[in-house]
Amino acid sequence: MKIVKALLLVSMVLWAEGALASRANGDMGFFGLAKEGTWGTAVAATDYLELLSENLTTGIDKFPTRNIFGGMYEPDDYAGMRRTTGSIVHAAHPLSVGFLLKAAFANISQAVILSGYLWNLHFTGLKSEFADGVPVTPHTLEVNRNISSGSHRYAGALLNRLTLALAPNQDLRVTGEWIAKTRSMITATVPSFPGSSTDPFAFDTASVQLAGAANTKFEAFQMVIDNQLEGIPTLNNSNEISRLRRTGPQMIRISGTLDFADNAEETDFINQTERSLIITLTRAQSFAILMEIPRLDYDAFPMGMSGRGRQTIGFTGKAQYLASSLSAVRIMLTTTKSNY
Asked: Which among 199, 220, 206, 200 is positioned nearest to 290, based on CA atoms?
């Protein structure tokens, strides 16, 4: 009997260790978000995104209070401002990607394709602030990291920078960089992820138009929408940022890799000829995303031969504002959700 009890005790210990070991696995975590009505007022997650990775982190500014103190040791410092920043990386799901586009642009319009089922959503550059002193739509983020304490909640989160990247053997890769006001722990909610489509937008349905004509020389493409946001601390009886402000206008930067088969694009760069660029991706059930830059202005077109291999060009450029379209970029998402 004693042997049986001992074996049971060992089994329970091993089970407990195994249960503890299974904690904090990324595959069991999840990410949720919801729009806030007032910046910094936390709300429960309403929607969930499947991620590739995340690194939202709270850092603490520290500062010294003693320099001359009669000792040869490093003195204690003082804990200052708490700053929460970080990014999420997401394969652009035909439904979920709309949340990040809304967070980056704030501006959205829609047209019905099939009533009650399918919509065209148009995301364009910033035209006004979400509220006085709040540049874009604020969100509350829930990050569950599969720990026993629950989920981390980040309130007053604004999307500072959004990157859309595309290359062969890759989904349309979306990276969203956030700045948040507060961090807290909450009881985990129950996630529910979109079920349709089951696949993200990816390279195998991508088509490129440059200056209104099909172009097959693009080997990689990246667009960065930079809202230029900054968290500002004030003397308000708090160690959290009290404001999020723009340090400049929304900037949209384009980069990529071209097969250097001829010098057509180099000529555009030398002559500073602006061209329209459209990239389209599709999925089953009529899902689609179209990224249009009406005025692509090359600002670097470096050339050179590094050796005997194939020649490519890594270009950079800007998306310039076009008055007739009232935007520097337009992203059209065809999806089954009507409101983000």
From this structure: 206
12 membership: H or E segment, kind and range:
helix 2-21
Tokens describing residue 256: 């990529």
Q: What is the DSSP string of 20-52?
A: HHTTT-GGG-EEEEEE-SSTT------EEE--S
Q: What is the pTM of this model?
A: 0.90
The candidate with the shortest Cα–Cα distance to 56, out of 140, 172, 165, is 140
Q: Give yes or no for residue 6 having a pLDDT over 80.
A: no
> Are 319 and 329 contacting, i.e. CB atoms less than 8 angstroms apart?
yes
Tell me: the pLDDT tens digits for 9-46?
434 433 344 444 456 899 999 999 999 999 999 999 99
Whole-number Å distance between alpha carbons of 137 and 107: 9
- The span from the CA of 95 to the CA of 142, in Å, is 19
